[in-house]
Amino acid sequence: MVKIGDIEVGEFPLLLAPMEDVSDPPFRVVCKDNGADIMYTEFISAEGLIRDAAKSVQKLDIFEYERPIGIQIFGGNIDSMRESAEIATAAKPDIIDINYGCPVKKVTCKGAGAGILKDIPKMVRMTAEIIKSTHLPVTVKTRLGWDTESMYVEEVTERLQDVGVKAISIHGRTRVQMYKGEADWTLIGNIKNNPRIHIPVFGNGDVNSPEKAKLMRDQFGVDGIMIGRASIGYPWIFNEVKHFLKTGNHLTPPSIDDRVNTCLKHFDFSVKWKGEVLGNVEMRRHYANYFKGFHGFKQFRMQLVISNNNDEIRQILEDVRQYYHQLELEIV
Questions:
Q1: What is the pLDDT of residues 259-315, one digit of tens each?
Q2: Does residue 152 share a domain with residue 67?
Q3: 32 and 167 co-located in one domain
Q4: Is 31 designated active site?
Q5: Tens digit of pLDDT for each residue in 148-168?
Q6: Is residue 114 scored above 90 in pLDDT?
Q7: Mind giving me the DSSP string for 119-171?
Q8: Among the three residues 247, 265, 283, which one is the final residue of a domain in this structure?
């Protein structure tokens, strides 16, 4: 049984990666429904929390059914990060997670996210201060290094463990790579097999199928896998991976009813949580992913992304259901 501090998270947990503008409560609920074991909020700005910025504070919203859930914070100032960890702790998550992996320039230029990989001593000091500021287990998400000349993640993991980090998730790319090229899990495997390391090591990067998950588990021995982009519009990947790891067989792919019902649940929660207007607008990025590969969906997508009437959105999704049911009848 894998444990983060005293929290049991399963034999081989699957983690939903924290993704900006994606990993909000409406998205998390459909991932939890479909097998995600551990989830994290979108990353939250330490400076935003301290200033009580509405967008940052709203990201603290968590729900009982999501547990175990972590609140992820980012920032480049040690005092601000310590204070934001205290604010996040008051929201009563199960875990405080530190983002040392975001590669976006507007984050890294302030020494936050992956930007701190240029200053490992500061990274260790910041982590130690955050750990002192909360009674919750603290975890870290990071990358292999800033670039191929500074892939110090093996040493970094030891030092973070020494100051009290309870688990680490590692994306198999450098900051310079962003999301390009192929993720390299070699160093992740080295860390997991380091006899000095006793905290859980989770691998992240390019796991987009049950077969890939099994390969990474078997080849590198990680304690669990973090899945990000592959879950967008396809939350079923978590249960598909679990079933394949357990049986060696594939689950039946989600039907058109599964897709429409899940998309509707996502939409309804989005409107409820963000409001009638913003909830509608922010769902628009998800429709194409829910029905990816469905011939003829483009006509419906165009309607979905221009409609400002939420009842009309629900009806269009019901039209999608009927359209593909009719196609199935015609094919049979």
A1: 999 999 999 999 999 999 999 999 999 999 999 999 999 999 999 999 999 999 999
A2: yes
A3: yes
A4: no
A5: 888 889 999 999 999 999 999
A6: no
A7: -HHHHHHHHHHHHHT-SS-EEEEEES-SSTT---HHHHHHHHHHHT--EEEEE
A8: 247
- Nearby residues of 134 by Cβ (< 8 Å), 6 or more positions away: 85, 86, 88, 89, 96
Dump pLDDT digits (tens) for 205-242.
Answer: 999 999 999 999 999 999 999 999 999 999 999 999 99
Residues 32 and 145 in one domain: yes
- Tell me which of 179, 212, 247 is where a domain ends: 247
Are 189 and 277 part of one and the same domain?
Answer: no
Query: Given pLDDT bands bounded at 50, 70 and 90, which one contains residue 329?
Result: low
H-type helices in the chain, by residue range?
A: 25-33, 46-50, 54-58, 78-90, 105-108, 120-132, 153-163, 186-192, 210-220, 237-247, 256-274, 276-283, 287-290, 298-306, 310-331
Across 27-42, b (16+ Cβ under 10 Å) vs e yields bbbbbbbbbbbbbbbb
Buried-exposed string 123-147: b where 16+ CB fall within 10 A, e elsewhere: bbebbbbbbebbebbbbbbbbbbbe
- DSSP, collapsed to helix, strand or coil, labels residue 295 as coil
Average pLDDT, the chain: 94
In this prediction the pTM is 0.93
Enclosing domain of residue 28: 3-247
296 phi-psi bin (left φ>0, alpha ψ -120 to 50, beta other): left
pLDDT at 331: 55
pLDDT of 290: 97
Catalytic-labelled residue, pool 31, 102, 109, 263 = 102
**In this structure, are 19 and 95 located in the same domain?**
yes
Q: Do residue 233 and residue 268 come from a single domain?
A: no
CATH code, domain with 267: 1.10.1200
Sorted by sequence, the CB contacts under 8 Å of residue 47 that are 6+ apart come out as: 75, 77, 80, 84
Number of domains in the chain: 2
CATH, residue 26: 3.20.20.70
